[in-house]
Amino acid sequence: MEKRAVVLLSGGLDSAVTLAIALSEGYGCRALSFRYGQRHSVELASAEKVAATLGAGEHCVIGLDERSFRGSALTDDIPVPKGRSIDPDTGEIPVTYVPARNTVFLALALAHAEIIDADAIFIGVNALDYSGYPDCRPDFIRAFETVAALGTRRGREGRPFQIRTPLIDLTKAEIIRTGDALGVDFSLTTSCYDPDGGGRACGMCDSCRLRRAGFEAAGVPDPTVYRAEGDTP
């Protein structure tokens, strides 16, 4: 019987590599994306392309009430930080944190996993997100895995879901090298927190800077289209 997995797919670099890993391990994958009022909605177009190119069996986009995700620079009228320190050890929770986003996304992924009798849920949290985002940390993932075991039929029947985080201990460069080896087309992905109307990356937000540094450290060409300084967004 084919192994099945639900993979959270944002359209970004990390989630694309996570989907590629799940597929390489022989899982039949349902990719799950969300429309939640994010300012960088271009990521949904990227998610669709990534899912189709890598060969996900199904790609679902779920629309959520955007009023549930206010209070973040990614969903509200709050400036996206540019040019700040990207040191992962500061302990600061940045204004780009979206309240309880991964909790909600994982809960919906869990429902889909029950529906299709999946064995695992894959999410692309990684080491560079630990200190900034509380819902990307190992203790949160372990706690959610416990919730999944206690709150589902499958869990109570002794067949608990695995919450798989294959990138959690990897640097951005290691993630990029892994994706490159698995044939991920990074030109289809988007990471920018503040892209322009044409989808060009700003080059200065935290995510752009981490992405650019990761490609440089990995020795892999960066296919990202960045807008030039002074260009109108």
Notes on the protein architecture:
By secondary structure, this protein is α/β, with parallel strands linked by helices. The chain has one domain: HUPs (Rossmann fold). It is built from seven helices and five strands; from the N terminus they run βαβαβαβααβαα. α2 (42-54) links the parallel β2 (27-35) and β3 (58-63). The longest helix has 16 residues, at 101-116.
Q: What is the global morphology? A: globular
**Poorly predicted tracts of residues:** none
Over the alpha carbons, how many angstroms does the gyration radius reach? 17 Å
In CATH, the topology is named Rossmann fold
Question: Could you state the order of secondary-structure elements as H and E?
Answer: EHEHEHEHHEHH
Percentage of residues in DSSP E strands? 5-15%
**Percent helix:** 25-40%
CATH architecture tag: 3-Layer(aba) Sandwich
Question: The biggest beta sheet, please?
Answer: 5 strands, parallel
CATH superfamily: HUPs
Q: Report the span from N to C terminus.
A: 49 Å
Number of domains: 1
Key traits:
single chain, 12% strand, 233 residues, Rossmann fold, 7 helices, alpha/beta
Secondary structure layout plus pairing:
Layout (H helix, E strand, L loop, with lengths): L2 E6 L4 H12 L2 E9 L6 H13 L3 E6 L37 H16 L3 E3 L15 H13 L2 H4 L5 E3 L7 H10 L24 H13 L15
Parallel strand pairs: 1-2, 1-4, 2-3, 4-5
Provide a short characterization of the protein structure.
This protein is α/β, with parallel strands linked by helices and 233 residues long. The chain has a single domain (3-186), classed as Rossmann fold (3-Layer(aba) Sandwich), CATH 3.40.50.620. Helices cover 35% and strands 12% of the residues.
